[in-house]
TrEMBL record, chains A, B:
Binding site for FAD: P116, Q117, G118, G119, G120, T121, S122, T196, R197, S198, S199
Keywords on record: FAD, Flavoprotein
Family in the record: Belongs to the FAD-binding oxidoreductase/transferase type 4 family.
Organism: Duganella aquatilis
InterPro entries: Alkyl-DHAP_Synthase (IPR025650), FAD-bd_oxidored_4_C (IPR004113), FAD-bd_PCMH (IPR016166), FAD-bd_PCMH-like_sf (IPR036318), FAD-bd_PCMH_sub1 (IPR016167), FAD-bd_PCMH_sub2 (IPR016169), FAD-linked_Oxase-like_C (IPR016164), Oxid_FAD_bind_N (IPR006094)
Domain FAD-binding PCMH-type: 84-263
A Pfam family it matches: FAD_binding_4
Cofactor(s) recorded in Swiss-Prot or TrEMBL: FAD
GO BP: any one term: lipid biosynthetic process
Superkingdom of the organism of origin: Bacteria
Listed name of the protein: FAD-binding protein
Molecular function as annotated in GO: alkylglycerone-phosphate synthase activity; FAD binding
Length: 529, 529
């Protein structure tokens, strides 16, 4: 069963062994475990629903609690400490576009806000119920069917609430794949990916969701927006691009048509180490700009590399690896690169060879497939680390941005520096490390993870998070980064959006939302503060 | 010097020989040449400018006439027959964003409409001065500098009024290329490409302008919209996508940052013939879906193939070619495919080999590079054919759309059929032929050319064009195509836009324009009717 107060399935655990805990203790001190609130205790806090009845809406406290929050750190604090100060008044499970239209009419009639959601995996506060108004969470996960597969055009139309694994299973049965694998894959949905401009781990091959999303249907308070599929069009601004990233402010995506491709015959992930960050960054920039047919490039900085090796839990093997790398010039300050290739075996291997060859002048040491395959096995399990760390009294959070190449290293250092000292006022240290999660000819995403100790009470931990989030977000904005490369805006990033959109850009986005949603019932408070 | 009443430079001519004229005569009858109006006679018709003076605005009839119209067939009719029923009251030549802002203030103060323009190559009526209001054409071509080249991120920032050849020359001097080569390349501008969502002949390698346009600056009546460059972003809807295709309705693009790449070391164009349309279409679909590193695929249908061979003007060579093709199975009904490759020689040749191999099971006959290189030589000269045909009493016009694969052949036949009989009421035939100009995994653009005889007077020729344009446009809309894949909407396609955008989509686009341009002074009447 899915965890109500953490990531993923209750039956899956990701253990931290003594060495891993020793590593963390040395960096930021020993954590003190905190007792979790009970589900019953938490759900008992919910105020009585104030909603008029509706056949599609469930107002039981249990269902409301399970659909109240996402996976942002403030959401976790609420759940773990049992401080449920916000929850929708009900949860609707539409099964058709007609159901969604009915909910929109209900919302308009009663002045109730709607909060569309897929799998509730947002890490940016997309799902928080607005204060001061009644609200209904619209859980889209019953709309999950593959409705149409056009093999000639390689287009698949799904109900927008389909989960990642379900979508891939329906496509794989027919020989196709979408190829969209964000870390949230197991619990996130197609509609959520579109609404938040999601990007998957293999976007180098398959593209971001923007490139995959070819058309669909959006139910808005002003009517249905039908987005037909064209291979390309010069007929005015692209309405799809207004839906992408709209985060529920314009309406609810009910159907989405996506570009699919034949499932790859071959797939492999390899690891390469570099002696230093500057060597590694130069190498990956050259590789990505060469336009080779790779499916993934993911580069960890020295501290992330050290952290991953320390947390891997195979001390003997890792120390053998480190000795080998040291002999080959990768010592203190080494960086790990994961390279993925997919497709026809001959072409994939040729691309890999080419890429590996390009790393050599920069001191790249290819260590083969083993670590890459390990990474692949754990690609959706690493998120569980957050549960494990919490059990030992540590919080884990992340921020991410994207910048053009000349600012990649500057950004990485700025975010890490800002984070490292952000909790000094509490006498606490922050362990901050970074990887480039997605690489482009133009630049890269810069994805920083923070580990720090829990205080043990809700108020202090929320205050600590706020200090840290603000410091990291300001570093992003001040260094010219976008406030999100892949997580979206939600509530947590909304205060920083104007820095990149500008005064006029913000007013354009607001005008757009107000035009289709005159009563402002669609996910109020998110995206546009 | 540039022609005032036709395409291109006065010194360039594209002759039609006896065989070519014989071919046309046989298809649609012998043309009767029409005498052109003189420039002086035409400019003398312009009403006196009603504009208040401004240091940036030239109100002389000569300059106004040269900036009054584009290259649509109705524009040609006006110029050739000297019926100048529409012209701006003046032409401004801004040299900076500050100049553009000054023009916006002037326009707002005096209630004057602004018509932004680049090289005036629109074939969809983007430049027509609105009736019932004073207007100024804002000619952007003095803003043409390469302002910044970031070689690390492969981004170049230009003044938006830079012409294609000037842009490429500035980049090539530094070892880079944009790679955007629409047929209008010689006289179209970067800003025009962005404003109309242009696509170049080698988009398979370099992408459409949507993919190249990474940021920039737009002066709108509501202020400056600054679009920063990010490699990717999940921070809400993409404002660039509202500027792309906005056709001057939101404001004037003054600077654009575009993605560039190293100039290719190697480039080649090859021709392949197929025995039939269905064989050819299946082959190119498989080739494009294989994702090979090609730079161009361009497939002519049987009638276009016949027409191109007939108009080529090398009767003996062509008949040798046709004999050879016939022996190899390509007879009546054969189709010509152009394949382009660019990049590193070894990779380009490998991709070409792979593509050629894929055509074999479909009866593809590779005839080598000669025809391809000929095509390349003439890639920007074929437009001059329109001048030549006119001299012999023929009009040439085109329509284009894009559809997913299952509808490509249906669309091609529907547009050709509709066009062929569209002038029956005038007792005239239309010679209509088609190529797929841009190929995508999802589908293709369908680009149809019409040749028909001129009546010899403005009113009748305008009526004939209207009948033809309407018939072809209705065929596009009724068969689910976009009203433009690469030419934009302007005035001529505006009546058909709602068919794809829908009622709500149209109202969203209107709300957007009205929000930034409350007085509706920006290019009124275009895009949104």
């Amino acid at each position: 069963m899915r965890r109500w107060n953490g990531w993923g399935d209750e039956s899956v655990a990701f253990a931290l062994n003594e060495e891993a805990l020793g590593f963390l203790a040395q960096r930021i001190g020993t954590g003190t475990p905190v007792a979790d609130a009970e589900f019953e205790q938490a759900s008992a806090q919910l105020k009585v629903s104030r909603l008029p009845e509706h056949r599609l809406i469930d107002t039981s406290p249990e269902v409301r609690l399970r659909n109240a929050l996402g996976q942002s750190l403030p959401d976790w604090l609420r759940l773990r400490y049992g401080v449920i100060d916000t929850a929708p008044d009900g949860v609707a499970y539409p099964e058709s576009a007609q159901d969604v239209r009915e909910l929109l009419e209900y919302a308009a009639l009663h002045g109730v806000a709607l909060i569309p959601q897929g799998g509730g995996t947002s890490v940016a506060g997309h799902l928080t119920a607005p204060s001061g108004t009644r609200s209904v969470a619209v859980n889209m996960t019953r709309m999950r069917q593959l409705l149409y597969l056009d093999t000639e055009s390689q287009l698949a139309t799904f109900g927008a609430g389909v989960f990642g694994p379900d979508l891939e299973a329906q496509l794989r049965a027919r020989g196709y794949t979408l190829g969209h694998f964000p870390q949230s894959f197991e619990y996130s949905t197609l509609g959520g990916w579109v609404a938040t401009r999601s990007s998957g781990q293999q976007s180098l091959r398959y593209g971001r969701i923007e490139q995959m999303f070819r058309g669909g249907s959006v139910e808005t308070p002003a009517g249905t927006l039908h987005l037909p599929t064209f291979p390309a069009s010069a007929a005015g601004p692209d309405l799809r691009e207004m839906v992408l990233g709209s985060e529920g402010r314009l309406g609810i995506l009910t159907e989405a048509t996506v570009r699919v491709t034949a499932a790859p015959a071959y797939e492999a992930f390899h690891a390469v180490f570099f002696p230093s960050w500057s060597a590694a960054e130069t190498a990956v920039r050259q590789v990505v700009q060469a336009g080779l047919s790779l499916s993934m490039l993911r580069l960890s900085n020295p501290l992330e590399t050290t952290t991953m090796l320390a947390l891997a839990g195979h001390k003997r093997m890792i120390s053998l690896l480190e000795r080998y790398l040291s002999l080959r010039g990768c010592k203190q300050g080494k960086c790990m690169l994961m390279i993925g290739v997919s497709g026809r075996k001959s072409l994939a291997r040729a691309a890999l060879r080419e890429a590996l060859g390009m790393t050599l002048p920069h001191g790249g040491v290819h260590v083969g497939r083993m670590m890459g395959e390990k990474w692949k096995q754990n690609r959706f399990r690493n998120v569980y680390l957050r549960n494990a760390a919490w059990q030992h009294g540590y919080a884990i959070d992340t921020v991410e941005t994207a910048v053009d190449w000349p600012r990649v290293e500057i950004m990485m250092r700025a975010v890490e520096s800002a984070a490292t000292v952000a909790l000094a006022q509490y006498g606490e240290k922050v362990h901050a490390y970074t990887h480039l999660s997605h690489l482009y000819a133009q630049g890269a995403s810069v994805y920083t993870t923070f580990v720090y100790r829990l205080a043990g009470d809700y108020e202090t931990d929320l205050a600590r998070w706020k200090s840290l989030k603000k410091a990291a977000s300001m570093a992003i904005v001040e260094n010219g980064g976008t406030i999100s490369h892949q997580h979206g805006v939600g509530s947590d990033h909304a205060p920083y959006l104007a820095a990149e959109k500008g005064r006029l850009g913000m007013s354009v986005l607001r005008a757009l939302a107000e035009h289709v949603d005159t009563q402002q019932i669609m996910n109020p408070g998110k995206l546009l503060p």
